[in-house]
Amino acid sequence: MSQDPLLSIQDVTVEYTTQGKRFAAISGVTFDIAEGETLGLVGESGCGKSTTGRAIIQLPRPTRGTVQFEGTELTTLPYDQMRQIRQRLQIIFQDPVSSLNPRRKVKDIVAEPLVIAGISDKAEREGRVREVLTAVGMDPDITMERRPHQFSGGQCQRICIARALIMEPKLIVCDEPVSALDVSVQAQILNLLEDMKERYGLTLLFISHDLAVVKNISDRVAVMYLGKFCELASSLRIYEAPAHPYTAGLMATIPTIEAGAQLETAALSGEIPSPLNPPSGCRFRTRCPIAQDKCASDEPQFREIETGHFVACHFPLTGGTA
Amino acid sequence: MPADIAESQPLLEVIDLYTHFDTPRGVAHAVDGISFTLDRGRTLGVVGESGSGKSVLSRTIIDILSHDGSVLYRGKVMFEGRDLRELSQKEMREVRGREIAMVFQDPMSSLNPVKRIGKQITEVLVKRMGMNKASANLRAAELIDSVGIPDPEQQLKRYPMHLSGGMRQRVAIAIALAGEPKLLIADEPTTALDVTIQAQILDLLRKQQRERNMAVILITHNLGIVSGYTDDVAVMYAGKIVERCETQELMNRPRMPYTEALMKSAPLLSDPPHTRLDAIPGLPPNLLNVPDGCRFHERCRYATDRCLTELPDLTADGSSEHLYACWNPLEVKAEALS
Questions:
Q1: B127: distance to nearest CA of chain A, Å?
Q2: B chain contacts of residue A249, beta-carbon cutoff 8 Å
Q3: Chain B contact set for A152 (CB, 8 A)
Q4: Is the N end or the C end of chain B the one with fewer CB atoms within 10 Å?
Q5: pLDDT digits (tens, 9 = 90+) for A163-218
Q6: CA dist., res. B338 & res. B332, Å (int)
Q7: Mean of pLDDT values over B89-109
Q8: Average pLDDT over residues B269-281
Q9: Distance CA B109, CA B206 (A)
Q10: Residue A258 is nearest to which of B197, B198, B268, comparing CB atoms?
């Protein structure tokens, strides 16, 4: 990664107000994504992974921090210019059915970004819709005149992907794109995303709670807990030698065909604390099997323990000379 | 009936069960000729994709689907020798909660939002177990404690909205256990929960199952959960059981191509990144219009002409207890035979 990253996020904090209280959904999040890379983002609900994805496309704008995309600072960009940038910065969501307008035909849904971009030639629009629908594995002759309810969840997700691809974006934020799908269909969509990445030269931020799915699709993986990054490393390394106790606990916790009946007790006890009132020091300490006094008083810094492997823990499980 | 006969007969025996929905667009074959038995103290995993009929099966067993004529039933549900399908609504109410209890996917919608948790548990104890109010309160606190909720007395006074999803599911389990059921049906009990909480809830179910020697039907779409938490397994596809055997046997030696395809389509943690997934092509059939022959044939890589026209029965090789419904079953590997 010698050249500049496609996307660079520095110290991003997103705050919300709820019940009259100000709280940070994510705080101090910093990472880069290189061109052509897939970065996986995992964590449990409420950890801030979707907020991170949305902070990139400025929905809403972060409270603090900077987001640079292709060298342009997005957090201070006027809204009309941001609209232009969004053509190159797309997002797909978890529930494909509710992200499609049920009253419109597929051809109009997929063509909408072209209309917004001011492409007025109807024949050109239709040609591009046909091309992109074919690319995502849908037959345009059958699909274009139909409405979303005539398709299954997996097919709707293909339509969402087609809509995201039609402006030929650089980066797509995929927010749990396969979580609502059955496993057999999930595999089709994951394979499709890999194919589209190849064909359109995409860069992906892939958000999911499923560690096996994230490992499969990502080059690097970041683990989030209560609004902060715990660990970031290459996909191979983080699964081979997780350094943060939370990452290790997550991995020990997933029931897999491989683990079989070996799982005897849950690896992580307790529940996720409220982000309104996060624990002092390390946010994970209340559930951490190896927490010590230091963890309650000092917040661990997100530091590099080996080349490309970052962890926020006073007592990392691996990583050689700390 | 003498006690020893009661012990030797299976707790639950489902015989040739059909549940069809009469819809404006045709008849949906949600459960289409299903038979299986479940012994006391065993955990049966029922695994399948959405629309395979697994939830309709469980709802037919405890009889909570409509009786207004829009649902057509056939077959028997023998529970301790009685056919539950023959019971009156009143008799069936006695069975539900007391003999058979159920835990659903979404704990928020299965709990009453405007009743305190304590009240929701004592209700079962008073109505089904005939306890008086004071002993029901004590018992409710014990139950709350046994499902791993801290500070039971305080929790009983709270409302479901005060609790997290995991805690609500623990309450739902406590309510299910209150009637000391012999069979617990858990329908996707952890699908709405985070993975770390999922493991806690599955552990809790297993602990309770062992302590009470309760039978459990665990319905899930996740083969990993089946592998970790069940004794036996039934794989469902388009309203039918297509493979049934002990769980370890299924994991080691799947015979039905659909089972194999399901295993291969999920990414494995041991695979390197960017491993191409063996996706199953196409979609599960529409239950309004199931294909002739084997229902999986359109998506099956081994399908032959026979599969297009003849529906295979659920059978075994010789005296084996490994049942599968396939004309071209996967070969048993050589080392497995020895």
A1: 33
A2: 196
A3: 283
A4: C
A5: 999 999 999 999 999 988 888 889 999 999 999 999 999 999 999 999 999 999 99
A6: 11
A7: 91
A8: 91
A9: 24
A10: B268
Round the average pLDDT of chain A to a whole number and report it. Answer: 92
Show residues of chain A in contact with B283, CB under 8 Å: 152, 154-155, 185
Distance between CA A177 and CA A92 in Å, rounded? 7
User: Edge-to-edge, what's the strand order for the sheet holding B215-220?
Assistant: B100-103, B183-187, B215-220, B43-47, B232-237, B240-246, B323-324
Looking at residue A321, its pLDDT comes to 43
B window 103-162, beta carbon within 8 A of A: none
- Shortest distance between the Cα of B83 and any Cα of chain A, in A, equals 34
Considering only CB atoms, which chain B residues are within 8 Å of A253? 195-196, 198-199
Domain B3-99+181-268+277-337 has CATH 3.40.50.300: yes
Q: Could you say which DSSP state residue B25 is in?
A: T
Q: What is d(CA A252, CA A243) in angstroms, rounded to the nearest whole number?
A: 13
Interface list for A 181-220 with B (CB within 8 A): 182-188, 190-191, 194, 209, 211-213, 215-219
Written as one string, the DSSP assignment of B127-176 is: HHH---HHHHHHHHHHHHHHTT-SSHHHHTTS-GGGS-HHHHHHHHHHHH
Q: So where are chain B's domains?
A: 3-99+181-268+277-337
Query: Quick check: A201 and A36 in contact, CB under 8 A?
Result: yes
Residue of B nearest to A190 (CA): B277
> Residue B206's closest chain A neighbor by CA?
A264
Alpha-carbon distance values, B158 to A120, A165, B115, B218 (Å)? 59, 49, 9, 29
- For residue B24, give how far its alpha carbon lies from the nearest alpha carbon of chain A (Å): 16
The verdict on a CB contact (< 8 Å) between A257 and B167 is no
Cα separation, A53 vs A57, in Å, equals: 7
Q: Answer whether CATH 3.40.50.300 is correct for domain A7-96+170-311.
A: yes
Q: Does B328 touch chain A (CB under 8 A)?
A: no
User: Is residue A289 within 8 Å of residue A303, measured between CB atoms?
Assistant: no
Q: Are A138 and A154 in contact (CB under 8 A)?
A: no
Provide mean pLDDT across the span A232-252: 93
The mean predicted confidence, pLDDT, of chain B is 92
Q: Do B199 and A266 touch (CB under 8 A)?
A: yes
| pLDDT 10s digits, B283-317 | 888 889 899 999 999 999 999 999 999 999 999 98
Does residue B268 carry a pLDDT above 70? yes
A90-127, pLDDT tens digit by residue? 999 989 989 999 999 999 999 999 999 999 999 999 99
Name the pLDDT band for B194 (thresholds 50, 70, 90): confident
Residue A263 confidence (pLDDT) above 60: no
Q: Which of residues 272-291 of A touch B (CB under 8 A)?
A: 272, 287
pLDDT, average across residues B220-238: 95
Of A18-22, A291-295, B126-130, give the range with the top mean pLDDT: A291-295
Q: What is the pTM of this model?
A: 0.90
If you search the block for the tokens 């304590």, which residue do you land on?
A: B118
The SS3 of residue A53 is helix
Distance separating alpha carbons of residues B22 and B28, to the nearest angstrom: 7
φ, ψ of residue B251 in degrees (nearest 5): -65, -35
**Which residues does chain B have within 8 Å of residue A254's beta carbon, measured at their own beta carbons?**
195, 199, 224, 269
